[in-house]
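Recap from last week: sequence in, structure out.
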Amino acid sequence: MNKIFILFLIATFSLFASDALMCEVINKDEIYKIKCTYQTTQKSYDRNISMAWTSPSTPQDDRFKTVLLPAGHISIYDYRYFDGRADGSWTISATDDSTGQVTTTEFVKADLSESNISSLSCEKPSISQPLPVK
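Predicted structure tokens:
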């Protein structure tokens, strides 16, 4: 009986799950990358997710990329190489083009040090706000 109740709770919470954008720093073969994963609810149709990386000081370092999220899938990711990125507070956002939902997160590159880089991750999603659909 408890198993059924727990499965029911998990199913209920997953129905009301919100979008999430999480970033982490990955070290593979001494090459550091910033990887951001966008998770959303499962839909029965393909969607375009726009990922925007906004630099704190150098506009030429900004990047805008659109990724196809196939029907039935719940996440996509994008990454940037750590070296060569501007210091400061980066803003990363993911926009679901079909709903206009925007999710953003922020991290401060200057706070990263070699001692904690392997375990560092950005805060959980900070802001979700719908955009007007035209």
